[in-house]
Amino acid sequence: MENGGEKLRDDIAAIEVAMLITIDDNHNLRSRPVHTLQLDGAGVLWFFTTRNSPKLDELEENNHVNLCYADANSHTYISITGCAVCVDDEERKEKFWSPMHEAWFPQGKNDPNLCMLKVRIRHAECWDSETSSMKELIRVENVI
């Protein structure tokens, strides 16, 4: 995650919440907000979710997703495509858990239904105000 990775990490950290877009079983696009926990050095975005979330049913059928970050005040707009999967990662749960997450996950970090949504970035681009176009930040080939 070289070149545009640092800019991407800084912009995402400033915005925090993305709209996660999945495809449902009728081929409709579905969006819902997700709070970004981390963009790691391997080009993976991490989020909390629950096993009974409809998005996980959708991801079982098609794990390709889009994440959109937008901040109109700073004119920062980011589009990320990637592949998503739910994983158990107790270490990450512990590391990223904070009391603010209880609003969405009231049973806490030890809830057996809580899992980590892992999105491996395939492509990331951001709006470039100078050229009024999207600028590629990251492209990763052959990601499953």
From TrEMBL:
Gene3D superfamilies: Electron Transport, Fmn-binding Protein, Chain A. Residues 6-139 form the General stress protein FMN-binding split barrel domain. It holds the Pfam family Pyrid_ox_like. This is Pyridoxamine 5'-phosphate oxidase family protein.
